[in-house]
């Protein structure tokens, strides 16, 4: 479909160029042969090409009449060809597709703190569904027309383009994005996407997919914060389910966005937070249903930190609790 759209657009551009050229040449011919003003020559050209007639601005000589015959033949042919191409462009839905694409770009331009999802294959589709369940704004970037059609059919905001291109990422609002997830099937593409994103926004959180085992290290060197191998994760999950089915089921329940009993959330202490220097016990007072599971500081993870721990800028907290308690905790922060 993308190729067909390009062909139709090219034909329409050629037809329009041909029509403009015929009008320009015909106008110049009338001005030279009949010594008319530019407006009179243009008026005669338009009325002749469209065959509506309107009378000659002034009486014509024999050369002018022969010129008119030529203008009728070539001009009417060029006009007819242009109109047919325009109808084909509209009938094939290209005009509607262009309008839809501009609408999508307008939606992306209004996004802030969103995710950029590169690739809408089987893995990308599941990521998009989880984002939707969590009410997380995101835009799908893919170069495959079929993938974009599937994503658009599910109501996702989509953008056509190669995610490894700087221009595409900028159009997807990478400067305003919260993070980027690249789930393309090819490891080389994931590396290039990661590199481009890291250059454009050095502090962007990037999660990348790795298909081959030796690709994980390369993608990390390219700048990914986290690298996930679907096959490795899938194998570990199957083994865990076989050995610890109840524990895995519990974790799945906690991580599920549809879970209404217990939520797992990560929170960050900002550099301008009023909680800097205060004790962890103040953030999680006694009797509060929300509790802290872990604290990550300077890359080190501390499980069940002491209540007297003083909070610092950049601390990342993993908290659990009922949805209402987690939302109240977020408001306190």
Structure description:
The chain has helices at residues 2-34, 38-49, 62-91, 94-109, 122-133, 145-153, 166-171, 187-200, 215-222, 230-243, 245-255, 280-283, 323-332; strands spanning 115-118, 138-142, 157-160, 179-182, 205-209, 226-228, 263-268, 291-297, 300-303, 316-321. It folds into three domains: 2-92, Helix Hairpins, CATH 1.10.287.70; 112-228, NAD(P)-binding Rossmann-like Domain (Rossmann fold, 3-Layer(aba) Sandwich); 260-332, Regulator of K+ conductance, C-terminal domain (Alpha-Beta Plaits, 2-Layer Sandwich), CATH 3.30.70.1450. It contains 13 helices and ten strands. Helix 1 runs antiparallel to helix 3 and helix 10 packs across helix 11 (245-255). The chain is of the alpha/beta class. The two termini are 49 Å apart. It has a six-stranded parallel beta sheet, with helices on both faces. 25% of the residues are buried. A hairpin with a 2-residue loop joins strand 8 (291-297) and strand 9.
